[in-house]
Amino acid sequence: MVSPLVIICLTLPMLLLFFFQNRRTFKKSPFPPGPKGLPIIGNLHQLNNSLLYLQLFELSKKYGPIFSLKLGLRSAIVVSSPKLAKELFKDHDLVVSDRPKLFGQQKLSYNGLEIIFPPYGESWREIRKICVVHVLSSRRVSRFSSIRVFEVKQMIKKLCGHASSSKATNLNEVLMSLSSTIICKTVFGKRYEDEGTERSRFHGLFNECQAMFAALFISDYIPFFGWIDKLTGLRARLEQNFKDLDQFYQEVIDEHMDPNRKTPENEGIVDVLLQLKKQRMFSIDLTNDHIKAVLMNMLVAATDTTAATTVWAMTALLKNPRVMKKVQEEIRTLGGKKEFLEEDDIQKFPYFKAVIKETLRLHLPAPLLVPRETSEACTIDGYEIPAKTIVYVNGWAIHRDPKAWKDPHEFIPERFLDSTIDFGGQDFEFIPFGAGRRICPGIPMAVASLDLILANLLNSFDWELPAGMKKEDIDTEMLPGITQHKKNPLYVLAKTPM
Ligand code: HEM
């Protein structure tokens, strides 16, 4: 397929002529410094969409903790220090609580009928409130506990099989499948993992949906080049994915509304949303499109983030045997040598909790958080930032700021013991879930899954590397995409402890 940027380069001479003829109308602004780009396309051709946070981290070393980019005709700033994250989220949170309107996200979110992608406003506030109170609250999350417990037990059983036959386990695969099963059961009340064609249909649709979120639509940055997205087939792919997903959600809704449906063993989020729709007690009328858009949010926001974090935690522990030994000793001693640890048991493990935090510091699943946009002009670090500027907060860089963290690149969970630093959005050097009005509302659900999965993996097995492999051989390469996944599968040997 012809790259959109190649097409742009071919059309560029004509546009340069237009630009130079009209350059007096292009105003200069006292904007933060940044890499020089080309007229019209700005820095678009220089950016690596796959590992953008790493590239922006390098650029912050050259241009400072706030720098600017030109993304086609749109301006962006990148914030890379805890001090400026605090200024942003404390002093200007309301102004930076919009999200940029991007073509693919708008389409797949039914034009922003959900929580992640709409701009700040009444409709976003209401739908977020409905979900925070009725779907994502700690109370509701604990009612889904039996789903997590059942599925984690199934995984442990499977790994026991691997342990007794000395078969190496691909932890990426096992943990992705587990997160996906937990979230599907939580959302739909059923699992798609072992249902043949249904399974591959579901996974195919969601992989394509993730690819559409990560894709670069030229029309987002240079609207008059929008035809390129048609030419490359990207728009048609998006339309098809939307159509297929819409049909899938509709089937799920129809299935749940079928009067002959057997009472499900587990009530899922779809059931909760359909009941709320009937009750009509909110300032907005919940429609099927709202429900479909919210389902998309849950699947997209929860599955990859949980899987990626558990894989990174195991990777870090295998690379740091001292920490692995210490955390397993804590879990097994304070856990009273129980065969299976329940969610309440895990709250007694301070070092384990510190391991999870340290994992989220070094391997935050959403390294650029979710981009924001200014709704009006504001001053940040003395710079005039106009309305409609895209704001990237580079969590990856902030979590490695040497002014905030000693030995920032080392995996040292002890740094969180005797420390009040937490991920609730008040400590701006540690923001894996973001901060301010748009902070992740899924923290209780995320923590419940991470705790249960990781604590039981560490309680039930000792972990070894396959023969001939040393801890130095475990790589930490990342897969391109919105969520920071480990690129190469982590193969390990689960051993039943003596
Ligand atoms: C380890 C797991 C997770 C991490 C690291 C994570 C991280 C994030 C981050 C960084 C944001 C953007 C916050 C901002 O703009 O300041 C976000 C937003 C969001 N997350 Fe999560 N998340 C996780 C799990 C979940 C789960 C389990 C759910 C729900 C089932 C969820 C639902 C959402 C939603 C709906 C938003 C949009 C909030 C808004 O724009 O108002 N997340 N998440």
Automatic annotation (TrEMBL):
It comes from Sphenostylis stenocarpa. Belongs to the cytochrome P450 family. Its cofactor is heme. Pfam families: p450 (PF00067). Keywords: Heme, Iron, Membrane, Metal-binding, Monooxygenase, Oxidoreductase, Transmembrane, Transmembrane helix. It is found in: Membrane. This is Cytochrome P450. It is a single-pass membrane protein. It comes from the Eukaryota. One of its GO terms (molecular function) is iron ion binding. The lineage of its organism: Eukaryota, Viridiplantae, Streptophyta, Embryophyta, Tracheophyta. Heme binds at C440.
